[in-house]
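I keep forgetting this: the sequence line spells out the residues, with the fold written below as integer tokens. I include a record here:
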Amino acid sequence: MAIDTVIFDIGNVLAGFDWAGFVRSFGYGEEINRRIASAVFQSKDWPQVDLGFKTDSELIDAFVANDPELKAEIEEIFTRWQYSVTEYGFAEEWVKALKNRGYKVYILSNYGRTMFTYAKDHFRFLRHVDGAVISYTVNKIKPRPEIYRHLIDKYSIIPENAVFLDDLPENTAAARELGLNAILVRSHEQAVRDLEEMLK
């Protein structure tokens, strides 16, 4: 096995997605925060953000329907939606270092339209990657195998020569099912160690 391709998830791998901290930043109080979490981030409707079929207005309506009393708070959260994910300070240099060593670098990430539009303009590591498959653009999400196959086919990736890094075990398990090597990211230091071991 000779790894020539590194595939990154974005959230909690190259950028922090701390939705609970984001909600707390509005100062609503813990009970309201808990209800917002239930109505939005932990709701059955959350995957629709990343699937990309619904507009922001339709998403807001779906979340508000889960807790109508919090209409104002949910609408306010969406005014700053794009700031809920922040690029890690090490991300650009990590990607650039891999590129300089001759590896192809791709992105495979579940991401909604509004949030990724902001990321595209502000996340520096994205300038250096060879390509990306973002869930809302293909209406497919991890861990469904179709999105992995889309990336593999689009960029002619040989699965056994590639390694995928993601923070969710169900996503790394799905990658392995399709023949990709995979690293479950628990911390940046651990991910770097595991990746370097695999690249030897």
